[in-house]
Amino acid sequence: MNPVRVHSEREFERLLDRLERDAHRALDHWQLFKGLSRAIRSYRAEMEEASVFWNLALSAHFDVVIFRLARLYDQESSGLGLKRFLLTVKATSKYFSESAVLQRLPGYPSSLARKINPSTLQNDIRRVSADRDHLVSRLWKLRNQSVSHVDPNPIRLAASSAGGLKRSEIETLLKRGLAIVTRYSLIYRASLVSTKVVGADDYLQLLDLLRRGRMSLAAQKGLIRSH
């Protein structure tokens, strides 16, 4: 796999922006999926009244996470995933030099300027490579057999296809990807994006309104029957 050919810092920054956005969007959907799953315990009655909707919503958020995760760890030589991005970082190390950082960020204290650690970069590349990390390998197999493509042979033979990932493993890959993108964003432009989305728990307000609506309807029915 070759690095992406970039001709300027601006071109490189567009790649960084895209990877950072993908990593955060995957985590956003994962947090919402987990939140809705937990909410079932407290709002079971409300969610069961529209069980098809909520089941589809949960499935949709989970699918989005897997799709985005597979794209984030893309192993195709023509795509943009973490592995190719890190190879691009390695090939454009001049963009991460102290002089380049201070030129991009006028007034930024030189004492705070971070530098790329070659051994950390190599380890990051290893941790996003399917041929060197077992979790990434399983994700890529899942992507090729069940997500982006469907392998017909396990279906026709009624055999098990690529095994899924446990929730803990999905979370590990999400946090790993986000940590890697954040590391190089901090070095490159001394900034990071918050992992907390404003309004991330809006679904709780919605469920509370559903509960209030159910209670109001129940009260109205009680009044009607009493007459």
Task: Give a short overview.
Helix content is 68%, strand content 0%. The chain is mostly helical.
Characterization of the model:
The protein has one domain (9-197). The chain is built from ten helices and no strands. The protein has helices spanning 9-42, 44-48, 51-72, 82-91, 98-104, 118-127, 134-147, 152-156, 167-189, 202-226. Helix 1 (9-42) runs antiparallel to helix 3, helix 3 (51-72) crosses helix 7 (134-147) and helix 4 packs antiparallel against helix 6 (118-127). The relative contact order is 0.15.
Could you give the topology of this structure?
Layout: H1 9-42, H2 44-48, H3 51-72, H4 82-91, H5 98-104, H6 118-127, H7 134-147, H8 152-156, H9 167-189, H10 202-226
Helix pairs in contact: 1-3, 1-9, 3-7, 4-6
Number of strands: 0
Tally the helices: what do you get?
10
- Quickly give the structural class: mainly alpha
- End-to-end CA span: 77 Å
Q: Classify the helix fraction into a percent range.
A: 55-70%
Keywords:
227 residues, 68% helix, mainly alpha
